[in-house]
Design brief:
The complex is a heterodimer of chains A (334) and B (214).
Chain A lengths: L5 H9 L4 H8 L6 H16 L3 H8 L3 H8 L7 H10 L4 H10 L11 H11 L7 H15 L12 H9 L4 H10 L1 H4 L4 H15 L13 H7 L4 H11 L7 H10 L4 H10 L10 H19 L5 H4 L2 H12 L5 H6 L1
Helix pairs in contact in A: 4-5, 6-7, 8-9, 9-11, 16-17, 16-20, 18-20
Chain B lengths: L1 E7 L2 E6 L5 E6 L8 E4 L9 E6 L2 E6 L8 E2 L2 E2 L10 E3 L5 E4 L9 E7 L7 E4 L5 E4 L6 E2 L10 E6 L2 E6 L5 E3 L2 E2 L4 E2 L5 E4 L2 E5 L3 E6 L5
Parallel strand pairs in B: 3-4, 13-14
Antiparallel strand pairs in B: 1-2, 1-11, 3-5, 5-6, 6-9, 7-8, 7-10, 10-11, 12-22, 13-15, 15-16, 16-19, 17-18, 17-20, 20-21, 21-22
Classes of the chains: A mainly alpha (334), B mainly beta (214).
Chain lengths: 334, 214
């Protein structure tokens, strides 16, 4: 178990010279996500005193599902982490930390209807903090929004909306807040979509005749790069402003587009997620691979230029060599 | 409307960006195109970067291989991997700078403005005085505005050098970043006071009050 800070680990990865050093010196110090999760869920059950049966009822899952979690099996959706967080009795800050660190998914986002109702429940002094309460309130709010005209909207920053949200006192005010921000709910991740669309537009064709015309279209890129259909579907959803981002898909998309860590982290930030995490073995390996690609890029290594054609294949090659637990989902996407 | 305000050689130039979806930024070329922002400083590469409007959002894109890179709000825009161009969001009030190895008059400062109406640029001579800036009538530099405090910022002359500090509730930005203490100013620095933008030129300020786009 590593005792270094994330910043120290980032520095170690940056100065790591070879995959052998990464494999033998650095990665063994990191716990896999599965082991971390196993520790966490057992800690939750111990602290709350719930039996597997009781916990399963609170989370609205079967008892065997809870037992699997206790053995390290990871919950498969953000909603499931929310249920677990409610059952654990978390307040808002704890829930956000739990989602980001263990769920590897976005923290609660005030510009999302579902999330804002969840936040309202977690912050309420009167309401019972349970998943059941959250579902009940969500249904009430949704009913109120059915006929709200969302054609016209003022533009509010997240900060302004968060300030308005923090002053809500009761369900009526929550409903009025939701009605006012219906257009925003429908565009929660607009800046993320804009960023991805801009990246594609800028890199897939050039309007400067002096640069030479890039003839690669997205379809050609995806075809030559053998993108999985799920990832192509993500891009389609992005263009239609409908995509609900998942961390592994953001990272896979970034690697297929030859984005470096700053661009991938920008996408993660726009999706309300943490940046690439040096203490996660898979993400540490990705950071190392990108650093290697940058060294080749900066050094003008002609031989290395082939590798830079497809960063995703470089990362895939490295992940296969390292044989890390839980890396299959990412390797499949690459 | 989107504008790029360029400060170079102590002169201010304004480019209205809405006429084109793409603008090319670089050192002057003989055959200049209509959508080119031509700079003369030797630290700017001939093809330095681009401003692109994609689906209503403005981005800045550094050209790979430009020698000195570009700073956005005081932070250098990272160099992407070979062959990749990385967009950077442009928001109202963002500062783009090209800086040479020695921070001096060769540096170029650009202010991106996205406002409902254009601003008018005015000059204010400092005359080695201490200057208080705000909407109050006792300020040496009075800027009228519905959202400006009576006293917002102060420029203190200490041994011929000017130091910027905040003296109100409003955040004061220097080259796109909020200041937390009295800070030495250098010629070419961009100062942001709510919806008022300024350039410090050593002996004078060039400033404009621009209403933000709602």
């Amino acid at each position: 178990m590593c005792h270094y800070s994330t910043e120290v680990f980032s520095g170690m990865i940056e100065h790591c010279d070879s995959i052998e050093e990464l494999k033998k010196e650095i990665l063994p110090q990191l716990q896999s996500q599965r082991n971390l999760w196993k520790e966490k869920i057992n800690q939750i059950l111990s602290e709350t005193g719930y039996s597997c049966k009781q916990f399963a009822q609170l989370c609205r899952v079967s008892e065997p599902a809870v037992r699997k979690w206790r053995n390290g099996s990871l919950p498969q959706s953000r909603d499931m982490y929310l249920r677990i967080g409610f059952a654990a009795g978390y307040h808002l800050e704890e829930m956000n930390a739990f989602l980001k660190r263990f769920g590897r998914c976005p923290q609660l986002y005030v510009k999302s209807l579902e999330d804002s109702v969840c936040m309202f429940v977690l912050q309420s002094r009167e309401l019972d903090h349970s998943y059941a309460t959250y579902l009940r309130l969500l249904e009430i709010v949704r009913q109120e929004l059915v006929e709200v005209d969302s054609a016209v909207a003022a533009t509010y920053t997240t900060q302004v909306i968060t300030e308005q949200f923090s002053s809500l006192k009761d369900l009526d005010e929550m409903v009025q807040f939701a009605k006012k921000h219906v257009p925003i709910y429908r565009q929660s991740y607009l800046r993320l979509y804009k960023y991805i669309i801009a990246f594609l537009a800028i890199n897939l064709r050039s309007e400067n005749p002096d640069e030479g015309e890039r003839k690669t279209s997205f379809h050609q890129l995806a075809s030559e790069g053998r993108w999985p259909s799920s990832l192509r579907h993500c891009v389609s959803e992005v263009r239609n402003k409908k995509w609900f981002p998942q961390r592994n898909k953001i990272i896979s998309l970034g690697l297929h587009l030859n984005m470096d860590d700053s661009a991938i982290n920008e996408m993660l930030r726009l999706a309300q997620m943490e940046p690439l995490y040096s203490k996660n073995p898979i993400e540490a390996s990705i950071q190392w691979a990108i650093n290697e690609a940058k060294l080749v890029s900066d050094g003008g290594d002609v031989e290395g230029a082939e590798i830079l054609e497809d960063l995703s294949q470089l990362v895939k090659h490295i992940l296969i060599q390292l044989d890390l637990a839980d890396s299959e989902y990412l390797i499949d996407d690459l | 409307m989107a504008e790029l305000i360029v400060l170079e050689n102590k002169q201010v130039f304004s480019y209205s960006l809405d006429a084109h979806a793409a603008w090319f930024l670089g050192r002057s070329a003989a055959d200049r195109r209509e959508n080119e922002i031509c700079l003369v400083s030797g630290i700017v590469s001939r093809e330095h970067g681009q401003l692109r409007n994609i689906e209503g959002q403005w981005f800045y894109v550094d050209n790979p291989g430009n020698k000195n890179g570009t700073f956005r709000n005081g932070v250098r825009i990272p160099r992407p991997l070979t062959g990749i161009r990385q967009p950077v969001f442009l928001e109202n009030g963002d500062i783009l700078q090209v800086r040479g190895p020695a921070h001096n008059d060769l540096d170029v400062t650009m202010l991106f403005v996205n406002a409902s109406v254009p601003g008018e640029w005015m000059r204010f001579m400092l005359n080695d005085r201490n200057i208080t800036i705000g909407s109050g009538k006792h300020c040496e530099l009075i800027i009228q505005g519905f959202s400006l405090e009576e006293r917002i910022a102060k420029l203190a002359n200490i041994n011929g050098q000017y130091f910027l500090s905040s003296c109100g509730q409003t955040a004061v930005f220097l080259n796109g970043r909020p200041i937390t203490a009295s800070t030495l100013l250098q010629s070419g620095d961009a100062i942001g006071l709510k919806d008022c933008h300024m350039f410090f030129l050593g002996t004078e300020l060039i400033y404009s009050r621009i209403r933000k786009k709602l």
